[in-house]
Structures are given as C-alpha cells and as structure tokens.
Amino acid sequence: MITWKDFEQIDMRVGTVVRVENFPEARKPAYKLEINFGPQIGTKKSSAQITDLYKISDILGQQVIAVVNFPPKQIGPFISECLVMGIYNEHNQVILLQPEQAAPNGAKIG
Question: Do residues 62 and 50 touch, judged by C-beta distance below 8 A?
Fold first, then answer.
C-alpha cells in the first residue's frame, strides 16, 4: 500500500496532443506525441504504444492525461518526457485516459 503522501508526489495533468508522428524505431509499434500542458509546464514529448486502437488523425487535438514529473527516459533515439496514461483491454491494447469534458491544459489530476 502507498500512502497519501506517496500519491501526492505523482503529478498527473491534462494536456492537448499538438503533434503526432509514427515512431518506426520503437521496438513495439508506437507514436511520438507532443502534448501541450499549458503555460506553466509547456510542451512535453512522449512515446505511446497506442497504434492498435488509434490513428494519428484520431489523436491529434485530443486531450490526454499524463504523469509529467518522471525523469526523461531514452526510448531508442527519442527522449520521452512524460507518461501518457491508459488502460489495457483484454487484448493488451491501450485505451487512452481522457477527460470526459474539455479541461484547461495543465489542470492537475488528483
């Protein structure tokens, strides 16, 4: 079990996907995302293995939820700066966590 204090250390925010491109160098099929988290946090990059259920045109302009306070992670030739959150379905495909209604970029999840 984690404590409430442990949970408070995780900084999850909502952001809008402003750029999506294929990531052919990834071991598993993935996209490179650029996500706008508003003026306080800015734009961050992420790699997301969401190609099974989402086309590039499906994701561009959509809001997602991501952990923004992990250290950068090298994924092949790409540096991921945040972790986009999702749910694994019964086929091990990722379903993105998204707000039900539009929210300001950078809004904190908690």
Answer: no
Q: Is 24 exposed, middle or buried (0-12, 13-18, 19+ CB in 10 A)?
A: exposed
Alpha helices of 13-109 — where are they, by DSSP H? 38-41, 56-59
pLDDT in tens, 28-76: 999 999 999 999 999 999 999 999 999 999 999 999 999 999 999 999 8
Alpha carbons 11 and 101: distance in angstroms, whole number: 20
Distance CA 75, CA 3 (A): 30
Q: What is the dihedral of CA 46, 48, 53, 59, to 10 degrees?
A: 10
CA–chain centroid gap for 46, Å, is 6
10 Å CB burial of residue 77 (0-12, 13-18, 19+) is exposed
Phi–psi pair at 60, nearest 5 degrees: -55, 125
pTM confidence score: 0.94
